[in-house]
């Protein structure tokens, strides 16, 4: 009898907690992720696609969320020569960089509530790249309409912490003009549809 009462109490508590909370799915076709990486001799820019994602949203607050990025979609956007473009993309997908054959996805999981005040908030989560999970934090903005919420944010990632070693001064010395800086930037525009899924 005690177990039944306890189960009912837990269920009721969960229902109260979830009250007013909506799970919204990401619109992958409208979501954009642009990357920028710098080296001593210049920089490269490109895109990568969101595979799937969702947030739990309640009164201007992200309660939780998870996003899966398809690492096999890495593309360069600055090179005009198609051969050079394909070569760079293949190199980024290789074990020298992100090893997409073994690690086809990266994930960002929201680990704490993020309240947005006047459309601005701080998002905290765990970022997983190449099977390595580390905490990350970044500023974001939110623009809500009747149909969607659009989040924008800039995420700076230190690739050396995720064992992405090629051309990194954290692992190799005397690289000279072959040095590629450890930090790369992701400019994210995430669009979620305000359609309840739970």
Q: Quick recap of the structure?
A:
Helices cover 15% and strands 51% of the residues. The chain has 198 residues and is mostly beta strands.
Main traits of this protein?
198 residues, mainly beta, Lipocalin, ten-stranded antiparallel sheet
SSE map:
Elements: H1 2-18, E1 22-26, E2 32-39, E3 42-57, E4 61-76, H2 82-93, E5 105-110, E6 114-115, E7 120-129, E8 132-144, E9 148-158, E10 180-193
Antiparallel strand pairs: 1-3, 1-10, 2-3, 2-10, 3-4, 4-5, 4-6, 5-7, 7-8, 8-9, 9-10
Spatial extent as radius of gyration = 20 Å
Largest sheet: 10 strands, antiparallel
CATH topology: Lipocalin
Low-confidence stretches: 4-18
The rough form would be described as elongated
Task: Look at the helices and sheets and give the structural class.
Answer: mainly beta
Oligomer: single chain
Instruction: Look at the structure and give the CATH class.
Output: Mainly Beta
Mean pLDDT: 91
Order of helices and strands: HEEEEHEEEEEE
CATH architecture assignment name: Beta Barrel
CATH-level-4 superfamily name: Lipid/polyisoprenoid-binding, YceI-like
Helix content: 10-25%
Number of DSSP strands?
10
Number of domains: 1
Q: Strand share of the residues? A: over 45%
